[in-house]
Amino acid sequence: MQAILTTFGIDWRLLLVNIINFGLLLAALWYFLYGPVTKMLEERRQRVAQGVADAEAAAQKLAEVEVKRREVLGAAGKEADEILLGARSAGSAKERELVKKGESSAAAVLREAEAQAAELKTRAIDESRQEVAKLIVLGIEKALKQ
Predict the structure, then answer these.
(1) Could you tell me which of 30, 5, 25, 28 has the C-alpha nearest to residue 15?
(2) Please, are residues 29 and 36 in contact by the beta-carbon 8 Å criterion?
(3) Which tens digits make up the pLDDT trace of 65-93?
């Protein structure tokens, strides 16, 4: 083996020193470079994974909010329809009540006007009778004077 190493010009002591230097360089690079870089890459991978998870959670939350928004809008629409229907029925009931009240007021005014007309008619007839009676009395007085 010594002959092969000498033939190729390899000094085993130099080879041993180079192996030790390479081992020390490898250990130093592993400790100072590979470890921190892999740690940094792992932290970055975790941040990216967390970002993806957060984005998926936000998308799911957005979908839930959209479903709830649609439910709330549907419920609000139904409630608005019910309120509108109630307002319309209350308005038509109030309209019927006001029409009924107006008709009863008109009937009362009409009855009062008829009563006043009847009273005026009765007074007019009584006054006419009194006038006719006065005229008859005056006519009889004139006739008796002549």
Answers:
(1) 5
(2) no
(3) 999 999 999 999 999 999 999 999 999 99
Of the chain, the end-to-end C-alpha distance in Å amounts to 195
Structure tokens at 38: 């892999």
Q: Hey, what's the torsion of the CAs at 121, 127, 129, 133, to 10 degrees?
A: -170
Q: What is the pTM of this model?
A: 0.44
Measuring CA to CA, how many Å separate 50 from each of 44, 46, 62, 67, 118? Answer: 10, 6, 18, 25, 98
Task: From residue 26, give the alpha-carbon distance in Å to each of 29, 32, 97, 139, 142.
Answer: 5, 10, 101, 160, 164
CB within 8 A of 5, min separation 6: which ones? Answer: 11, 12
Classify residue 9 by its DSSP letter. T
Task: Classify residue 29 by burial, with Cβ atoms within 10 Å: 0-12, 13-18, 19+.
Answer: exposed
Instruction: Report the pLDDT value the prediction gives residue 11, as an integer from 0 to 100.
Output: 81
> Cα–Cα distance between 34 and 83 in angstroms, integer?
71
